[in-house]
């Protein structure tokens, strides 16, 4: 068996391209540089395969005889071709635009790029914005076939000249329709007209209508079908005269590139809105209500709930409207004429652009997940075609199953048949039959489906949906939300460090999907367990610097606080069914070394804010003229030579039970650079300069605050003189209930400080001001 090749060409900033290569086997090609709109659907990938007699270029998967593919079929007995994607041949594009418009009066756009296939037959697809054209150049006896959902829309014979065929068109009841074509609805009451790429309609009689929205597919009142490809909110039905709108919100589940109807809202211009949510939950005016099998009336709306879902009955201008929602399918039945007074996807499923309500464009972002190699197209056909077999066949004459079959195939060819998805389409059809007074008896037994389908007993959060987890029905993570963690192989995080505490948040649905019971998790200290938020289903672990078995370590630059989330390990347990879990997380304080400590003067004090990860602590330095530290020195204080100055260093945000601050060294220079000269040392290795009897350091390393004093001086021979003082500090971790202190304990351990400079005679009035120096410096300068 040959494995299919995959060619990817999309690249950021690449707009003009000419790409060519031979194809001799099944090949998938990314054509997002040249997207093709084919009968109302835009495609950015093509699938080429050979069957011995023919070559197929398909848009929604490799061709299979029983598949419902959108394909171009061309004779090819050599099982090879030469492919080209071109966006830069402007001469050809301009020329072909003229030729196409001259040949096909329904084409109004200009050519932007093309896909070409050469040898042994020559043909191509020309992209023209929201339109496209098949370009065919072969002998007359060579015929190409245009297929939509597996059915032939047109056979295009060859010619001695180029032949063009409009492949824009529309889809009516799942069938491809050429522009300008008119078809009658199944009840012959409505004429459906394909005009270029949209469908318009005219009604000739009064009919009742049923609109089904299941998965990403909308089957409108006239049986016309279309799909929603994004995660936006849409109007399903609007009656402006009655002031009523029915809205549906679409969201992803296991895959980012497939959307499902997720909730339904009945919006009234007067009165409270009613929301039908997952898990058969209902909100009226934003508040939850409890329903039963009996009808309860809220603002004129009759609400009831049974095992299959929730039903809302309203009256529009005296005519009944029924809305049913079970979490996967929304069905609206109107017992009024389907006329022009209604708008929305249920009135016209092709009106997606005008029916989209979401103002946030992010909901329109498109994703491409890898193809699911567990999907078997033959199995999908068998699963969906059951709607033509007993017991469903008893209803086929009343409700045409074709749209439901196509919706089933389209979804299951991209999305795995999990979480009851296969049965979802069967249930939608059976419900449509029931509304048409043709009940399908015991269908769930014949189809091997659960009845009723299980729902999540707990409320799933906004980033979750109800699905299967290891054989149990529970809340799973939505794919887009989960990708921010799974792409980095994480279960949550990152660590949040603040005020000597740390926290780590794990995603509850990811834990479940990985078979981890959060009740079995704890920190190093088994008594420290996580707290599960009942609304968000996020599990939060927290610890402080001296609790829950936190380990404190140091290296040359940091003090690190580390803990871990681990699995409970009980020696009394003979067996365990829990995987081992070890998730380590930490916070750190940087030692305030010179290169990463920045000081600034704030009025009459100096403050430094030190940051380590997301833990912060501040260091404030103030100068006083008295030992009692009551006379604060300000910018205009009178400072004299040989006057004793007291410096107080206070910290905020450090845990004094765990760490202390030690001043390693302080020195003075006449320039603002710490490496400038001359240099005068005041504190070295945590100890005061023994040759300067005026320096006294108090409480160095004995806590998170300390002080020191010295007598004011100036550098000799410097006129005018400025004195800059620089300090380097460290954090010390407590060991054996005590802190390691400098060896000069008897000489009063030192700390951090600032300095002044002076010039001129003593007792002359001086001012204090800030001199901006290199980062990590504090400079309090005394000048004339």
TrEMBL record:
Chain intervals for the UniProt region annotation (Disordered): 350-371
SMART domains assigned to the protein according to its UniProt record, in alphabetical order: C8, ZP
Domain ZP intervals: 496-751
Record keywords: Disulfide bond, Signal
Compositionally biased spans, kind Low complexity: 350-362
Signal peptide: 1-17
Protein name: ZP domain-containing protein
Species for this entry: Oryzias latipes
Gene label: LOC105356345
